[in-house]
Specification:
Length: about 625
């Protein structure tokens, strides 16, 4: 009987914290002290229904009317102390009590900070991510440790895996890993290495070729990362280029090029957020609404490209380090280790992808043919591009522009189609040439997918940590760093830093953009006034601030060990994840600081964008020339 009582007690502890009535839709489990939050209320009658939200002290926080069978979002609610809880929500003659966990704003940044610090200190990312998720779940569970452990699984890990887009990324990665396993087994990968070796005779040329491949696959950052990393890894291994360097080149070309090219899966998303920001600005500035709404969001995006200093300088810096064959900091040590000792990764490293299996090596006795690898990879690229065009054209109609077609395309479905097609082509050419049997193809495919499992676990925990930060309001707290009392010229700089911190803490550049663009555009327009918009200095500040959201999000994403694209870069490069973060961080910080000083601040005070870019490139060159180390004696 004591055992049964213990089981009953545990079951009660693990019950969901909120069993709210149907009138409250998704009530918050955690709110931050003096940070605005919102409630979504639903009508329950055929007539208009009055509602009130009161604190425990009797203070009316909000009141209004819900339309028949409608939904009302109550915004701007704030709680300053624990004495105001529980909240009482009155809807008509019904009432509900809502008692979320109240935490100070600074606590909302502790889970990602804990995960990042543990990962950097111990170089073990899975345990670090688990600890960060658990700390956030602790707040959600009302600081009950046992309940927090249950919430970690059922409220964060499982929903992260249930998200359709997340599953698409996992399946795409596994399928692509399986394809890589097949082309490695049929000798295609080794065929590419042997064919490219006469042209890429040095590490310098291998790095430049990898950078060029990153520019070529511009339509999606996930596809870019996995295709370039997996395709170029055997070549860079042969040239004694460290896995850390390969991961850096892959990571620092994928998101920047996808964000810059007007035809990519990023652009439609960015334009929709810019449009939302202009609409909100028009609502807040009725006197200038016509002027604001007359602006085309796509044209505004095109005008921001010269102000995207971090992505532009990051791409150029990758090329610069490759051409000059110089590195600094931990990256220089990694490159010297690979060049002098032939150690492609640090001894004792935990590789995100296991390439040591016999199934990842060519079958003995086969002729190594480069087209056995090239055809499946080209199939992936062609099918993805065709899928993007087809799904986009279906959404916007036959008369739309190519930009509009790609903006409305379905990237996740097309990535799945492309990776599956690549697997099928790899199997067909292997069996058709009698290089592998069907059974051997399946074994090789399974070997490729198994090699991805560590990365899949890291991705799942990273997404779970992102859900935790959303539940405890990390992004909302960081967004309060923006104030309407700051000088107009400092807006781009402050926006860049805020977005970088947000993306670093949450591990998502897209989530940062979604929160910040609808805030930054109206704020900048209201501070600059709308009388002279879109001309004059106000337009330069607006373009700089808008670009700072995009650039800051990418910068924070590059620095964050919990970012999905950072994880995928380690995966595709078969690199220890924390070694990738540790070696890339100084590069990203250097480029970010120069971009902030010359770009964000300089252009706000009158420096033309081309001057800021030229100055940034010059400073990066001088830094490499006098602080960088030549990393290969042969070159």
């Amino acid at each position: 009987m004591p055992f049964l009582r213990l089981i009953t007690a545990l079951s009660i502890l693990l019950l969901p914290a909120n069993m709210g009535a149907q009138e409250l839709l998704d009530p918050p489990l955690v709110i931050l002290t003096d940070v605005p939050f919102e409630l979504t209320l639903q009508g329950v009658s055929q007539t208009s229904t009055q509602y009130e939200v009161r604190s425990a002290t009797g203070l009316i926080l909000a009141e209004g009317t819900i339309l028949p069978q409608g939904v009302s979002v109550v915004t701007g609610l704030e709680v300053g102390s624990i004495e105001q809880l529980p909240l009482q929500v009155l809807i008509g003659d019904r009432s509900d009590e809502l008692e979320p966990t109240l935490i100070p704003g600074w606590f909302s940044v502790l889970p990602p900070i804990l995960a990042i610090l543990l990962a950097l200190i111990f170089r073990e990312v899975i345990t670090a991510l688990f600890a960060g998720v658990w700390l956030g779940a602790l707040a959600v569970a009302g600081f009950n440790p046992l309940k927090a452990t249950g919430r970690l699984i059922d409220q964060f890990v499982v929903p992260a895996l249930a998200d359709a887009d997340h599953v698409a990324i996992l399946v795409f990665s596994l399928l692509l890993g399986g394809m890589v396993g097949i082309i490695a087994r049929n000798g295609g990968t080794m065929g590419i290495v042997e064919s490219v070796t006469p042209f890429a005779r040095s590490a310098k040329r291998g790095k430049i070729a990898t950078w060029a491949a990153g520019l070529a696959i511009f339509f999606d950052d996930y596809a870019n990362t996995l295709i370039v990393g997996n395709t170029m890894r055997p070549i860079t291994d042969r040239l004694r280029i460290s896995r850390e360097k390969l991961a850096y080149i892959v990571d620092s070309t994928a998101a920047p090029v996808a964000a810059l090219v007007p035809i990519s899966t990023w652009v439609g998303y960015e334009i929709s957020l810019i449009s939302d920001g202009l609409r909100i600005a028009a609502e807040q500035n009725p006197n200038g609404a016509d002027v604001i709404l007359s602006q085309n969001p796509f044209d505004l995006f095109l005008q921001t490209i010269p102000f995207l200093f971090y992505p532009l300088l990051a791409l150029l810096f990758v090329l610069m380090t490759s051409v000059m064959n110089r590195d600094f900091g931990p990256m220089a040590e990694a490159e010297l280790r690979a060049a002098t000792k032939g150690e492609l990764h640090r001894p004792g490293a935990t590789l995100a992808t296991d390439t040591s299996s016999e199934l990842m090596s060519p079958k003995k006795g086969l002729t190594h043919r480069w087209w056995n690898a090239t055809l499946p990879v080209l199939t992936v690229i062609v099918v993805v591009l065709a899928g993007l065009y087809t799904t986009g054209r279906t959404s916007v109609g036959p008369d739309a522009s190519l930009r509009a077609v790609f903006a409305e395309a379905d990237p996740f479905s097309t990535l799945l189609w492309g990776s599956l097609a690549g697997c099928l082509v790899a199997i067909l050419i292997s069996v058709g040439q009698r290089m592998l049997t069907i059974h051997e193809c399946i074994d090789a495919w399974l070997g490729g997918t198994k090699a991805m499992m560590i990365a899949m676990i890291i991705l799942t925990l990273a997404w779970s940590l992102g859900s935790v930060t959303e539940a405890i309001g990390t992004a909302q707290y960081l967004s309060l760093l923006l104030s309407d009392r700051i000088p107009l010229e400092l807006i781009p700089l402050i926006v860049f830093v805020t977005c970088a911190l947000m993306a670093f803490a949450t591990g998502t550049s897209w989530g940062t953009m979604a929160i910040m663009l609808p805030v930054v555009i109206p704020l900048t327009i209201s501070l600059g006034g709308v009388a002279t918009y879109p001309g004059g200095d106000q337009a330069a500040i607006l373009l700089g601030a808008t670009a700072s959201v995009l650039a800051g999000a990418i910068f924070g994403d590059h620095c964050s060990p919990i970012s999905d694209t950072t994880v995928l870069s380690s995966t595709a490069s078969a690199c220890d994840h924390m070694d990738h973060v540790r070696t890339q961080l100084p590069y990203a910080i250097l480029v970010g600081i120069i971009g902030m000083v010359l770009g964000n601040v300089g252009t706000a005070y009158g420096l033309p964008p081309w001057g800021a870019l030229l100055g940034g490139v010059s400073l990066l060159f001088l830094f490499l020339r006098f602080r960088g180390r030549v990393v290969s004696g042969a070159d």
